[in-house]
Amino acid sequence: MAAQAAAAAGVGLTLPQLVMAAPLDELVERARQAGERHVVVAGGTGAYGDLVNRHFYLPFTEATGIEVVPTGGGYGEKLAKLKAMTSVGKVEWDVITLSIDSLTPDVTSLLRDLGDCAGLPDVASQGVDGSCLREGVMFDIGGGVLAFDKRSFPEGQAQPASWADFWNVKAFPGPRALPNIGNPWWALIAALEADGVSRDALFPLDIDRAFRKLDEIKPHVTVWWKSGDQSQQIFRTGEVVMAMLFSGRAFRLRGEGIPLGISWNGAPLDAAFWAVTKAAQHPNAALALLDFIYTRPKAHAEFAAESFGSTAQRGALDFLPADAKASSVLQPANWSNIVRVDREWLAANREKVLQRWSMWIAS
Fold first, then answer.
1. What predicted TM-score, i.e. pTM, was given to this entire model?
2. Helix (H/G/I), strand (E/B), else coil: 162
3. Using 50, 70 and 90 to split pLDDT, how confident is the model at 323?
């Protein structure tokens, strides 16, 4: 156990030199001088991985000469493997991508401390507010938006615009849907906002108050969706008139011609981040890649259009089609309405909330 603890803390490992503040060109030069010819990234797979490769990995290699070696898997799978590799002192990955909800103290100890990202100048200058997470940088960003069917709430009439409106079944009648996907704090956040709690006073969550508010809306929630595909299907079939959806799923429905309205007002943040592992064998190349992904805003706009998502590169907004700009999470008015989950609160309360949610949803 002592050996595992030491390994987890980076003790006993031969770590390459920690890089301090340096612009992208300097990071690339340091990688070259250190003989770092490639960087191993545990990222996404499938069609998503192909998009990242085309828009970011290949251009990085073309610009720097540093090859990106992609590997990956699901978030849970990657995190378990990183912990296992760290425990035996043999970390094969330089960069890992994870969900922001996984950035808890037991995970941050496995990742390099980037401080305020002063060493990654493009993150600081080109990212949305809060792009630097200290132990990583945000990449995909979105949220649990309030989506509603405009066939039920057409233009020119009152339309739901807040979680208070979601709870207002008299003004906005019709069946609703909420997620049941292992992150009940999203529903708790919505409930508290609907009950009048100001955004800056949400955490620590008043769990009892949130469940009392959820009791009010429960009879009107006809679908507790368990997958992104299901959340889309219930709008295609007209089973519900409004729901909390992943923003990317809402935009996909719009792409299919479903007339959805979208509100970012109080949407819980849904984001993935890229981090350098504490025992990375190619740290200069890894840091150069993290900085590089915040350059080239046009590539981010193209990636967003093809993935129905968004990245944290704020300059991409200038390259989005006119009809996509207003509802983009990159719009300052939308980004400022996002709710970030308090990671320390989540680490301390995750299991307790999950257990209570399971009992409540089954009752």
1. 0.87
2. coil
3. confident
